[in-house]
Amino acid sequence: MSEQAVSPQQTPSAPASPAASAPGGRPQPGAAPAQGSAPAIQRQFVNFSFYKLDPAFRRLDDHEKIQARSEFLKMFQGQPEPGMICLTYSTVGLRGDADFLLWRISLSTDAFQQHTQRMNMTRLGAYLTTPHSFLSMTKRSMYVDKLDPFHTAESRTHIIPGKRKYLFIYPFVKTRDWYLLPLPERQGIMDVHIRVGNKYPSVKLNTTYSFGLDDQDFVVAFETEEPKDFLDLVMELRETQSSKYTQRDTPIFTCVQTPMENVLDQLF
């Protein structure tokens, strides 16, 4: 895979919000530009955090577990952090090192930290570890999608997630040789990559960028109702030239969109 979206489906953009300041005088993300300048394009922070429940929690007495469950669900069902989207996915029975995923999207990392703080303060939170967590941002791809006439400066800068049952996620790193290729050559390689992706319209790709923010170059998240289509897409892309410039594209996580209440049912 690569940084270019391979699905013809586009994520609609949101209008820029009015200027505002955060506590301490810091400018609020997405603040309006100065008068006379071009409208600012809002970009989102994206966090994929995987959690694992300590088996010791299951050995607590039933009363303690019921109380901890109720407190945890109350926290999730209460008032969310302003402007943050949080979707829950189960990996129970699908991964040995994680039980569930929180896919969080916001204009500020503050929301992720505040939400995590509230989780940590619960009794159940004391039994959760975070074996994997990926941080990224939305950004317009530098490659032109010649098959999509709606590929604009605003496209792919806003994610509207959760429309499909399955989510496949992995961190992605390109080789340094890829970045040393001339841009026209990279565009030609990506043209083939994009053509392959457009053969699988049931698979929606959300590409986010991690340069300087986390260990990987990108985090790619594919949404679909048909896992077999995603499998076939990945296999076919292995045969494209872009694949030889992949340095790392693991671990891969298969996630199923599941309400938190049902995730807890699967865990204890």
Could you characterize what this model shows?
By secondary structure, this protein is of the alpha+beta class. It has one domain: 2-Layer Sandwich (Alpha-Beta Plaits), CATH 3.30.70. Helices cover 25% and strands 23% of the residues. Strands 1, 2, 3, 4, 5, 6, 7, 8 and 9 form a 9-stranded antiparallel beta sheet that branches. The longest helix has 16 residues. The two termini are 37 Å apart.
Features:
single chain; 268 residues; alpha+beta; Alpha-Beta Plaits; nine-stranded antiparallel sheet; 6 helices; 9 strands
Topology:
Elements: E1 45-53, H1 62-77, E2 85-90, E3 100-106, H2 109-120, E4 128-137, E5 166-174, H3 176-180, H4 183-197, E6 204-209, E7 218-224, H5 227-237, E8 246-248, E9 253-257, H6 260-267
Antiparallel strand pairs: 1-3, 1-4, 2-3, 2-9, 5-7, 5-8, 5-9, 6-7
Task: Briefly characterize the structure.
The protein is an alpha+beta fold and 268 residues long.
The level-1 CATH class: Alpha Beta
Task: Determine the strand fraction and express it as a percent band.
Answer: 15-25%
* Topology-level CATH name: Alpha-Beta Plaits
Low-confidence stretches: 4-25, 29-33
